[in-house]
Design a protein that fits this description.
By secondary structure, the protein is of the alpha/beta class. Helices cover about 30% and strands about 15% of the residues. The chain folds into three domains: about 20-110, no CATH class; about 130-370, Spore Coat Polysaccharide Biosynthesis Protein SpsA, Chain A (Alpha-Beta Complex), CATH 3.90.550; about 380-430, no CATH class. Strands 1-6-5-4-7-13-9-14 form an eight-stranded mixed beta sheet, sandwiched between helices. A three-stranded antiparallel beta sheet has the order 10-11-12, with no helix packed on it. A two-stranded antiparallel ribbon has the order 2-3. Strand 11 (about 290-295) and strand 12 form a beta hairpin. It binds uridine-5'-diphosphate (UDP) and manganese (II) ion.
């Protein structure tokens, strides 16, 4: 499904129905207020990035050239530049700087050009991806009220959680983990939006005993400045790539953000997804809900307060995909296009309305909530470093809070730590020396 957003750098834009739709969508996007945070005047980072690509210049140039000879030189130069670009990009090892166990499933290195999850476009986007740690064995003996063995051959749910460093990260993941601990046959793909691997998170994830993979998949720097930024996209793309590289075609894919609230019934509902299942998500935008309209057991339309020309106006948490179904679509993609990630992803897997499986009692129940946690800056507390040793718990406590990005102690900055005894403030020296 070629479009301006998916088109790789080595293929000219083809004029398809979709292109017209894209144009429509651009118009809509300009006319309508954007859903993502702080999005008064939405920009289109992916498209912009694309238009600044050498290929985009060439496209523009070739449109203008027409019969004008004096434009021939720039065209030739642009062509030479493009050839050089392709040579250097394809010629070298096209694989990303992945720490992803090398050999596994490299079948897609012969980039067919239409998808941008690996190969040339990923590289052009400056994406990086590292496998930080992985636990493939389920260490739980019981899940809910049954021994693990009783869940036998249930299809595995690949639960993809984009996450990013901020004060709330560790509590969010802790809360989510304690939901997932009740779910059998689940592999948790946690993709962190930061350059390096967070060792604290490695240990934490390992400790839960749920099969997991911890990836470091930072948002490419050029998108970070965009307003709105494509939140969680690099992470989800990383997870899609991880699935592809392992050739995982058995199981169910679900995108579960770190701050949402999941009803345990959601997992049994999505587990039997044949192609794509959908269900309402609570707390979305202006209506407090977004989801399919169902008649006679079939999805016939969508209810969502922000349309913007999207064919699939659903939230990321509002659908699940069967991996075997997804595997039929080599161009599977999620572009860096804020607000349109779901729509473009679902377009890239060739979804048809009549194929959608409504879940949650024909979309009458809310099994997932788009809750959002109030965010605040990490605290700085004035507490002399001479007291942060083994004499009290405070040294270890503040070291741990610092690692989690929650609070830090300083000799000189922040409000003085209030330590009290018998209802009265006490000098630090009295209590801690
Ligand atoms: N996220 C991320 N990088 C960012 C911002 C967000 O990886 O810079 C993740 C975040 O942890 C969450 C998902 O992307 O799992 C969606 O972000 P958020 O919950 O902030 O978006 P919203 O709730 O507004 O849709
Ligand atoms: Mn969220």
């Amino acid at each position: 499904m070629p479009s301006a957003y998916y088109a790789p750098l080595d293929q000219p834009l083809t004029s398809t129905d979709d292109d017209d739709e894209e144009a429509d969508i651009e118009r809509h996007q300009q006319q309508h207020q954007r859903r993502p945070k702080g999005a008064a005047a939405p920009s289109i980072p992916f498209l912009e990035a694309h238009h600044h690509s050498p290929m985009a210049h060439l496209r523009v140039a070739s449109g203008v050239v027409g019969g004008r000879r004096r434009c021939l030189l720039p065209l030739v130069l642009a062509l030479l530049f493009l050839i050089a670009f392709c040579y250097f990009t394809f010629g070298a090892d096209t694989r990303l700087a992945l720490g992803l166990g090398g050999g596994g499933g490299g079948s897609d290195d012969s980039d067919d050009g239409m998808h941008s999850l690996d190969g040339i476009l990923s590289r052009a986007l400056n994406e990086t991806l590292h496998l930080c740690s992985e636990g493939l064995f389920d260490q739980r003996l019981y899940v809910q009220d049954k021994p693990m063995e009783e869940y036998g051959n249930l299809p595995i749910i690949y639960f993809v959680t984009p996450t990013y460093p901020r004060r709330e990260q560790i509590p969010e993941l802790t809360r989510l983990a304690h939901t997932l601990l009740h779910v059998p046959r689940l592999h948790w793909l946690v993709a962190n939006d930061q350059e390096g691997c967070n060792v604290f998170m490695d240990l934490m994830l390992k400790g839960f005993g749920i099969p997991y993979t911890h990836l470091a998949s930072p948002m490419p720097s050029n998108f970070r400045k965009a307003k709105p930024a494509p939140r969680g996209v690099a992470n989800r793309r990383a997870a899609l790539q991880w699935l592809r590289q392992r050739n995982l075609t058995n199981g169910i894919l679900y995108f579960g953000d770190d701050d949402n609230t999941y009803d345990l019934r959601l997992f049994s509902e999505i587990r039997q997804t044949q192609r794509v299942s959908m269900f309402p998500v609570g707390f979305i935008a202006d209506y407090g809900v977004s989801g399919p309209v169902v008649r006679k057991g079939k999805v016939v339309a969508f209810l969502d307060s922000w349309l913007a020309g999207r064919r699939w106006p659903v939230d990321m948490a509002g659908f699940a995909v069967n991996l075997q179904y997804m595997a039929q679509f080599p161009n599977v993609n999620m572009p860096y296009k804020p607000g349109f990630e779901e729509d473009r992803f679902l377009r890239s897997i060739g979804l048809r309305l009549d194929q959608i499986e409504p879940r949650g009692n024909n979309c009458t129940e809310i099994l997932v909530w788009h809750t959002q946690t109030k965010s605040k800056k990490a605290a700085v507390v004035r507490l002399e470093s001479e007291y942060l040793d083994g004499r009290s718990n405070l040294g270890a406590l503040f070291r741990s809070l610092k690692i989690m990005g929650v609070a830090s102690a300083s000799d000189t900055e922040g409000p003085k730590a209030l330590i009290s005894k018998n209802g009265k403030a006490a000098a630090h020296s009295t209590i801690l020396s």
